[in-house]
Amino acid sequence: MPAAPARTTDVAALALDYGDRLIVGTVREMHHAVSSRMFKATRLVGGQVPESLHDAVVTSVYGAISGVLRVSSGSVRALASHGVGRPMEDSRRGRLVVAAVNGLIGDELRMLDDPQAITMSVRVDGDDVPATSWPLAEAFRDATSHPVIFVHGLCENDESWVNGAKVHGTTYAERILAETDGTPVMIRYNTGLHISENGKHLDQLIQQVVAAWPVPVTRITLVGHSMGGLVARAATNHATAARETWQHLVRDVVCLGTPHAGANLEKVAHLGSRLLRFWPESTPFSTLLEHRSAGIVDLRHGYITRDEWEGQDLTGQWGLDRIAAAPLSHAEYHFVAATLGASQRHPLSSVLGDLLVHFSSATGVGRTGPIVDGATFEYLPSAHHFALLNHPQVGDWLVGWLNARTSSPRALPSPRHA
Predict the structure, then answer these.
(1) Considering only CA atoms, which of 387, 279, 262 is closest in space to residue 319?
(2) Model's pTM, two decimal places?
(3) What residue numbers bound the domain in which 128 lies?
(4) Residue 54 above 70 pLDDT?
(5) End residue of a domain, out of 65, 88, 111
(6) First CA to last CA across the chain, in angstroms?
(7) Can you tell me the distance from the alpha carbon of 393 to that of 403, in angstroms, rounded to the nearest whole number?
(8) Number of structural domains, the chain?
(9) Is 222 contained in some domain?
(10) Nearest to 234 by CA among 102, 327, 103
(11) pLDDT of 217-228, one tens digit each?
């Protein structure tokens, strides 16, 4: 029996739950920290009576608010269980909301068996396509022997690749169909899970796709945006370790704005949460900031294997060290980096990179040198992170890589940019 679809009432109930746990809880803890400091002065004159009266009133007020939110959440969930509320999957906006929620707390959604938790799947026109023979044959009637598998980034979904289509007049998928021998295949997954876990899921899904593809597969291309590039690398790493065969068909791995050496924004969040713990009044905000999914935390480290995080407190360490993951020796790796400024040396580029990922991380250069030896790179100036989802210049590169039998390697940037 298929699982019940996530509805607008499920989203509302989740918002009420987190309003109680995070917002009300954070305000209550901050109020307590501030009042404790202020009542230090009154204890010398009036003893602890004013403080006790204040705490009693405050506890009852916050308790009442929390109780209302919990009761409301339970009532709304009951409505969802009876089919009240529009299914989130019925609209593109609803699907984008579900994707964003999964990126933020997807690991918890999966643990709670929440209907909003996304299961990795092939997608066509906003719907899941089972990776079995008949559904794939129906969905890909003009399939070629060269599937080009697109893996989106954090809080995105399979429809994120059409961003800017009205402006540019086309998408990567449309250009691949028109200008190459490839068949675009869109993947959707829960970006709140560990990258290594999603890599394992992608490995298993590609195995199924290759086995059930309408025609024999002779070549595979992997295209990942941001986190998606790490998931693609994690999948090939897992397949190699498990002695699978599909990875031998991979000719190109394309990573667009992928934080191979970690993402600056996640590093800032980590540092901010550490700093906020220095003062009692700001400690509640640190707790709020630390409530991030496993997938987001992985982005600070650029981890793609389970061994790198298992048994580790990733919220308590910076994470510069990573286990070497051997790239596919027969495949070519193409890394695309963007910067907000018109050059790498522009102040905005130096500080923010493409807004979320620094130039050196996107080109695969860590503190100890290239993360993937022999990878080539392309640079897109005056562009932000999400422009890489659909950009004419990137489309030209992608079509060129898919059509080229060989490509001339380009030198990686110097480690001094890291």
Answers:
(1) 262
(2) 0.82
(3) 121-263+320-417
(4) no
(5) 88
(6) 51
(7) 16
(8) 2
(9) yes
(10) 327
(11) 999 999 999 999
For the stretch 342-372, pLDDT in tens is 999 999 888 889 988 989 999 988 777 788 8
* C-beta neighbour count of 119 within 10 angstroms: 11
Residue 27 lies in a domain: yes
- Does position 70 have pLDDT exceeding 70, yes or no? yes
Same domain, 398 and 249: yes
What's the one-letter identity of residue 18? Y
* Same domain (yes/no): 125, 219: yes
Closest CA to 260 of 369, 151, 341: 369
CB 357 within 8 A of CB 153: no
Final residue before a domain boundary, out of 45, 64, 88:
88
Same domain, 238 and 363: yes
Look at 13 and 177; give whichever has higher pLDDT. 177
- Lowest mean pLDDT across 93-97, 231-235, 330-334, 412-416: 412-416
Q: Is-contact 47 100, C-beta < 8 A? A: no
Same domain, 79 and 125: no
